[in-house]
Amino acid sequence: MESPALEVVDLVKRYSRVTAVDGLTLAAGRGAVTAILGPNGAGKTSAIEICEGFRRADGGTVRVLGLEPSRPELRARVGVMLQAGGVPPAMRAGEWLRLVSRFSASPLPPQALLDRLGLTRQARTPYRRLSGGEQQRLSLAAAVVGRPELVFLDEPTAGLDPQARHACWQLVRDLRAAGVSVVLTTHHMEEAERLADRVVIIDRGRVVAEDTPAALTGAERQLRFRARPGLNLDELLNALPGGSAAKESPSGHYIIEGPARVGVGPELLATVTAWCAAEGVTADDLSIERRTLEDVFLELTGRELR
Amino acid sequence: MTTTDGPGATLDLTPAPGAAPMWRMVAAQAGAEVKATLRNGEQLLLTLIIPVLLLTGFSAAPLLDLGTTRRVDFLTPGVLALAVMSTAFTGQAIATGFERRYGVLKRLGATPLSRGGLMLAKTLAVLVVEAVQVVVIVAVAFALGWQPRGFLPTAILLIVLGTAAFSGLGLLMAGTLRAEATLAGANLVYLILLACGGVVFPLTDFPGGVQPALELLPISALAGGLRAVLADGAALPTVSVAVLACWAAASLALAARTFRWE
Question: pTM, whole model, 2 decimals?
Answer without folding.
Answer: 0.85
